[in-house]
Amino acid sequence: DTDIFGPSMPKMFDVEDARPYAVDVDGRKLIEPVEKYGVKLLSIGFFVNSDTATLWRGGMASNALKQLIADANWGDLDYFILDTPPGTSDIHLTLLQTLAITGAVIVSTPQSVALADARKGIDMYQNDKVNVPILGMVENMAWFTPAELPENKYYIFGKEGCKQLANELHIPLLAQIPLVQSICEDGDKGEPAACHPETITGQAFLNLAQAVVTKVNRRNKVQPKTKIVEVKE
Ligand SMILES: Nc1ncnc2c1ncn2[C@@H]1O[C@H](COP(=O)(O)OP(=O)(O)OP(=O)(O)O)[C@@H](O)[C@H]1O
Ligand SMILES: [Mg+2]
Predict the structure, then answer these.
(1) Is residue 97 a contact partner of residue 228, using CB atoms and an 8 Å limit?
(2) Are strands 39-41 and 104-108 parallel, antiparallel or unpaired?
(3) Do 111 and 205 fall within a single domain?
(4) 127 and 232 inside one domain
(5) pLDDT tens by residue, 166-209
(6) Ligand 2: distance of its center to the CA of 148 in Å?
């Protein structure tokens, strides 16, 4: 969870009370990630009071983020997934300077104001000093379907905005996730929709995950490894 100012992973994984401890690995003190649903996770949320605003300058946030990444006992992982805050902030720059990012998945709702931010995000990753491949876009809250009218789709945030942007920029659209009350409720409960593969919404998230895996494999086959970005301070 790279959102230093608004961490939400501890709540979404129902591990708000977890307090990661330090372990000794080859003489180094490392933070032991919290594990839930087969995912090892770290978040600044484990270390700060959840009701208190974190009044940090960018540099402090960047240092905290670097520690969560580099000073943790991650062990062998299949994937290292970074959930970023919205926008193109100091946090994003720190990530690009700290890790060779395989690829970025851009999530947006379909309305114009959100798409403007998505466009900036894509531009940042595609900048010729950054060169992080865009694996694809996800259109979240693509439509709303009420339980009592399962045939109806209401395009509350506009229709297919992400699909059009993806087409325009020649980026794959990995998924369209509808606005569903249970997605919100399950997230707040700390039992995300992906934990329920027997439901349609659960399936939508598993399909998205599979699409990301496919894109990552392909990217690794056809494109060279990303270089860590060197930015002059
Ligand atoms: N498709 C959806 N249907 C219903 N609720 C949703 C959906 N997508 C997201 N939400 C709700 O909105 C919350 C925030 O969504 P999400 O984490 O995707 O947003 P974000 O852009 O990462 O927000 P933040 O700025 O807080 O990081 C979720 O925890 C969930 O409660
Ligand atoms: Mg977020």
Answers:
(1) yes
(2) unpaired
(3) yes
(4) yes
(5) 999 999 999 999 999 999 999 999 999 999 999 999 999 999 99
(6) 30
Whether 180 and 150 have beta carbons less than 8 Å apart is answered as no
149-161: per-residue pLDDT in tens?
A: 888 999 999 999 9
Give the strands of the sheet with 134-144, arranged side by side: 104-108, 134-144, 173-179
Q: Are residues 34 and 126 in the same domain?
A: no
The first and second tokens of residue 67, run together, are 């520690």
**CB of 139 closer than 6 angstroms to any ligand 1 atom:** no
> Do 95 and 124 belong together in one domain?
no
Q: Is 187 in the pocket of ligand 1 (CB under 6 A)?
A: yes
CB of 10 within 8 A of CB of 46? yes
Contact 107, 137 (CB under 8 A): yes
Residues 6+ apart with CB under 8 A from 55: none
The pTM score is: 0.95
According to DSSP, the residues that pair with 179 across neighbouring strands are 144
The CATH number of the domain holding residue 152 is: 3.40.50.300
Domain limits for position 8 = 1-99
Atom of ligand 1 nearest to the CA of 83: 22
DSSP H or E run through 97: helix 90-98
How many whole angstroms separate alpha carbon 91 and alpha carbon 98? 10
